[in-house]
Amino acid sequence: MAPHSLAMVGLGALGALAALTLTKTKPASKPPARDLSSHAVLQQRDLSSLRLDYDNDHIMVYSMTKVGSTSLWVALGSKLEQWNYLEETNETYGSITKTHFPEVARDIVRKVPRDKTLWIFTSVRNPFARQVSAYFEDIEQKRHLANLTEEQIMAMPMDEMHQDFLKRWPKENFGADNWYSTEFAKIAGVDLTAHKFPFEEGRLIVEGWVHGRPTIVVLLRAEDVCCWWDIMRHHVPNWNPVHKEDARELWYGSKYDEFKKSFVWPQHIVEAISVADSLHWYTIAERAVMLRKALGVRLDHLEN
């Protein structure tokens, strides 16, 4: 098939996937029972002017893995030099915590004093990039390919690595997730996918209600990490963007970079990811770029 025809096939697939993304509808969820008197008071507050009080408020960073949550957590905790990452429940918790585990997050929310404001921060990332990043982190942490040395991993043929990566489907579910609308919503008391992302502001701030108490929920995009300080400075005093992690600087950096450049996602996986919660907070143009790159479509083939 001629390059021009290949490009048209790719664009046709992209158009179909974009249509799937844009026409995605979700059934309305039944709102949880609420203490209407307390909730009404919170409703009257202007969320855009809220300011975090380190002396009285509690902060929890709860997110999926590989979405920039460590950068978020370090920035929030730097003022008090308090960084508590939790994999198990505790009897008590500090005022700034981070976890990826729903049972831990649920316990933290339950134990925050009722007279304290609870801020729940989360973040989102291009799901294609997130899954590749998670794959290489699993390798680095010896959760995957633990029988191989670093030298053997670096020498692995790229086609073989691509196939190894794909073996994780459908077990890993590759971003075809409803985590934000289900798991996170249960913890935070609000379905973030029911809210449009204010792109001009760079962050979504909404109120939730869980365990008979209000929550202030903040969602940021990992792609905007370099601007988080500017985005959040009116809400979080002393925001300190001190953490930066670049996988390209790690021992597998060149392999990671080669993988991202060479891997083409199978169309059935792209179709599944195209209706994932994670794409909800990206513009139509941003989604199109993600889908095009995932499918390996090169628009320059259309040039004369």
Could you characterize the architecture of this molecule?
- The chain is α/β, with parallel strands linked by helices and 304 residues long.
- It has one domain (48-295).
- 39% of the residues lie in helices and 11% in strands.
- The protein contains twelve helices and six strands.
- A six-stranded mixed sheet has the order 2-3-1-4-6-5, with helices on both faces.
- A hairpin with a 2-residue loop joins β5 and β6 (213-221).
- α1 (3-22) packs across α12 (284-295) and α4 (102-111) packs parallel to α8.
- The relative contact order is 0.19.
- Mean pLDDT is 83; it is low at 1-13, 20-42 and 299-304.
- Residues 1-18 form the signal peptide.
Question: What would the keywords be for this entry?
Answer:
39% helix; single chain; signal; alpha/beta; 304 residues; 12 helices; Sulfotransferase domain-containing protein
